[in-house]
Structure prediction request, 134 residues.
Amino acid sequence: MIRRSRFIRFAIVGTAGFVVDAAVLYALLTLVDAGPLTARIPSFLCAATFTWALNRRWTFAAPREERQLRQWGAYTLAMVCGAAVNYGCYALMVIALPDLPATPLAALAAGSLAGLAVNFALAERVVFVSSRAR
Prediction:
C-alpha cells in the first residue's frame, strides 16, 4: 500500500515535471531557435532538478539533514537511466513522425511514460533508500 501511494506521488510529481520539461523545451524551440533534439537536454535537466526537489520533500520525505547536493547528484545520475529510455523514445518519435507543431509534445509525453517505471525504481531503491530506512 505504501509503495503504491509512493508511486502515485512520484507520478504526480512526474506530471508536474513534464510541464516544466515541456515549458523549457518549447521556450528553447521558440526563443533560442534550438533544434528539438538539442533543446531536450536542458529541458530534462530543469525537469530533473524540479522533480528531485518535490520527490525529496513529498514522495520520499527525505530528512532535512541529508546532504542535498550529494542527493541531487545521485538522483540526477539515476534519472539518466530513465532519461536514456525517455530520450530514445522521444528522438525516435521526433525523427519518425511528421514535422508538426505538436510532434515534440507528443514525443515528450511518450518518452516520459517510457521512463517512468525505470525512474521510480531507481529513485526508490537507490537515491532515497536511506530516507525510508529512518
About this structure: Helices lie at 2-31, 36-59, 68-96, 103-127, 129-133. Residues 22 and 105 are 7 Å apart (CA to CA). The two ends are 19 Å apart (CA to CA). The mean pLDDT is 87.
